[in-house]
Amino acid sequence: MEQAEKEAKIPEVENQKILKRSLKYGLEAAPSIGDRTISTFTREPRPAYAGIPTFLRTPFLEDVRRVGEYDVAFMGVPFDIGTTYRAGARFGPEAMRRISKLYTSYSYEKGVDLVESLNMCDVGDVFTIANIEKSFDQIFKAVSHVFKQGTLPVMLGGDHAIGYPCLRAIAEHVDGKVGIIHMDRHLDLQEKDMDERMHTTPWFHATNIPNAPPENLVQVGIGGWQVPREAVQNVRKFNTTAISIDDVEKLGIEKVAEIALEKAWQGGAKAVYLSVDIDSFDAGFVPGTGWPEPGGFTPREGLKFLDIVAREGICGMELVEVSPPYDVSDQTALLGTRIICDVLASMVDAGKLGKKFS
Fold it and tell me: Which end of the chain is more exposed for a tag (fewer CB within 10 A), N or C?
């Protein structure tokens, strides 16, 4: 109930700048239009069905050499040749950008307006190619470029194979340990699958990075009938932390988040990376994914967990495995968008903004 009072304290400076810019560049509306904040050509977040989609309608940054001028950079990674079942996640970035037009920059529950709090941009998509390892090189270079400029990289996947090059790019620029909090129904901890480093393998390879030790890897939401025994054996072998949905039921979201944070930040870790596989949510809520598995998080549970985790600060995040060809009414892409927005808002509200690694 205090949200309405909190809203009164949020400035509208940046939103007014956007409105003035839209009238300047999009031309004033026809004389018959009574609302003089409307322009002739759409240059602002209205209407939701129009405009060229960037994530949350943030400015498209054509010159990525200037990315250091921004707090947050959204980056599409249209890659799905690491999938082992249903492909289509290469269209995930496009779907999330398009459905993000439904959102304003203000969250009633969080009491945060992202446009007023952060300088954000969309740097477009990484040019991924028809080769897994060469695509990894491209992703590594892209994420590394953004991160070393001091900008928080937010990756829109793409299948989960991208987790390895994304984490590697960040770890290279962190002077100390990097922890990983990974939401998923699957462990993704095999060395290889189908003789390649597929979307079932990222954390095996990520935890071989010298400053991303396996004991700082926490995997939350694991369960069902799609968890290879090889991956389970590697949990024991590498001493990672795997928390099942049954554990979540028994312990509660708050306790699970507490454990995840303790494990990820242990040993004096300097940063924590957040990886969210959309299939960590129950298949009834996310039909548009490559490996749907019943019994996962409800949206309310998952968002609560992410709120607690994000308030401690993260150094980067990825949202993966949104596969639009299998989606229904864009509900999977919409949840992916909501997750990203909520994580950013939680960091803003906690005064972190992903800068804890500095």
Answer: N
Nearest-angstrom CA–CA distance, 224 and 232? 13
In whole angstroms, how large is the CA radius of gyration of the chain? 20
- Residues whose CB falls within 8 Å of the CB of residue 208, separated by 6 or more in sequence, listed in order: none
Going from the C-alpha of 264 to that of each of 37, 64, 181, 219, 296, the distances in angstroms are 47, 31, 7, 10, 22
pTM over cut 0.90:
yes
- Tell me the pLDDT band of 193, cut-offs 50, 70 and 90: confident
Torsion of CA 23, 28, 29, 34, to 10 degrees: 90
Report the amino acid identity of residue 337.
T
Average pLDDT over residues 190-209: 92
CA–CA distance from 185 to each of 158, 228, 275, 281 (Å)? 17, 11, 12, 8
**Cα 216 from Cα 239, distance rounded (Å):** 9
The pLDDT tens digits of the residues spanning 33-60 come to 888 888 878 777 777 787 889 999 999 9
> Where do the domains of the chain lie, and which CATH numbers do they carry?
1-44 (no CATH), 51-350 (3.40.800.10)
| Burial of residue 334 (number of CB atoms within 10 Å: 0-12, 13-18, 19+) | buried
